[in-house]
Amino acid sequence: MERACDCLKAMGIAAAILVMLVAVLSMLAYAQEQPQEPEKPPVEKPEDAKQPEKAPEEPADGGEQEEKPRDAKEEGDKTGQSKKEEAQDKPLKFTKEQIERAYPVGERLTYSVSWKGIHAGTAVLEVNAKVRYKGRECFRIRSYTNSARAISLVYKVEDRLQTYVDAEALEPMRSDMKMREGSHRKEQYVIYSPSDRTAEYHKKKRGKFVLRRKHEKVPFGIQGALSSLYFLRTMNLELGKSYEMNILTGRRITKGVFEITKKKKIKIPDVGTFTGLRISPKYIEAPGEGKMKPGEGLFVASGDSEVWVDQATGIPLVMYVDIPLGSIRVQLTKKEKIEKKKKK
Prior knowledge:
The N terminus is likely disordered. Strand 1 and strand 2 form a beta hairpin. The chain is an alpha+beta fold. The protein has one domain. The radius of gyration is 21 Å and the shape is globular. The chain starts with a helix and ends in a 7-residue tail after the last strand. It has a 15-stranded antiparallel beta sheet that branches.
């Protein structure tokens, strides 16, 4: 009985992870959120106030200190930081090859999730046909997570995530999440406004959606929970290198740093043999956003993740996540092409 209860708890955790496939980039934000008081806008600190709001002509770090650097290393560090900040103030551009690699229309990936050898559920990722959203051509990507039939008899899991991604800028325009895990229900959505660089986070409370937070000065290249997984596929991943991106979880903006630490051949039955790269994710809270709390994600407090992706395509292959109840394994089981329905 105790083992069965542990399995149910693990399935709930696995589903929360898989709904973004899972937490490769953003599991910190959506797993097991605890009830808390309504959020208040972050209080601007004096040191933050020194940063110019819009001054493309001036150095990003304020100006005076850069005129008389203490040494060459300090000057180099500031120059590198200035370049990164400047890059975030401009729209990102992608080649046709990068876009097609990241968002192959019609792709469907199926994953199996298990805990201590027990099949707990299945997750599916899809890149649907291009659609028009708010006058822009967008990719519509979806994630479905369902508990296994035996688990559903006592603890049913049905999680859905959908995101519209601008087909040129590769930034999300809207993301929706609907979760059902046992008796727990959660619904939320984020609306992005590329023109004024804002994003609004809405969460359902007592049957109605309520604006919980409006983000200002959203950096270019921002990604959501699901789109961040696909955005990683625009990059040429190499062993020994690290990659960064800003991720909007809904409640806050955090920076993901992903280091490629290992490389090996991975053979998956009925799917193929791949050159796998191991990604070690780390997360950095943005200035003024506050610390990530344990209630926002299980892995903020404890637990390690091991993520392996295909070097050629960036597709997630296998993932291991350590939790207090054991280790969860997520593995690709099928890669297929969605056929368009013919009009009669």
